[in-house]
């Protein structure tokens, strides 16, 4: 997850992929032989053409399928040039927490992330 002031970077997934059309944080799977930090860097570059630096893990959860998700905070350069990969991303946006939470297309796991945040399980570097 990438934060800037009072906003979080989100994507709308390409329609032809799993969970197509859903709103979520950019990210993906850890490939064989890769650390989670390396996956964070690779996934954001693959999806949006940007380079990030992993900062710290914020939270973990296991979804219904049994998949373990790791939620990481990452830094981004001041004025990155975004180049969304149309094979994975329909569009991207910087949105406030309340905007993201109100979206009907929000992935359930991302909604769970905000529930944990509101329960005080971790902090975000956002200015409210």
Describe how the helices and strands are arranged.
Blueprint lengths: L2 E2 L2 E7 L9 E2 L11 H13 L3 E11 L5 E9 L12 E7 L1 H5 L6 H11 L10
Antiparallel strand pairs: 1-2, 2-3, 2-6, 4-5
- Number of distinct helices: 3
CA-based gyration radius: 14 Å
CATH architecture: Alpha-Beta Complex
Report the CATH superfamily: Nucleoside Triphosphate Pyrophosphohydrolase
Can you tell me the overall shape?
globular
Biggest beta-sheet profile = 4 strands, antiparallel
Provide the CATH topology. Answer: Nucleoside Triphosphate Pyrophosphohydrolase
| Domain module count | 1
Q: Given the helix and strand composition, which structural class is it?
A: alpha+beta
Question: H/E order of the elements?
Answer: EEEHEEEHH
CATH class: Alpha Beta
Q: Give the low-pLDDT segments.
A: none
Helix content: 10-25%
β-strand amount: 25-35%
Strand tally: 6
- The mean pLDDT is 94
Cα distance, first to last residue?
17 Å
Key terms:
128 residues, alpha+beta, Nucleoside Triphosphate Pyrophosphohydrolase, 4-stranded antiparallel sheet, two-stranded antiparallel ribbon, 3 helices, 30% strand
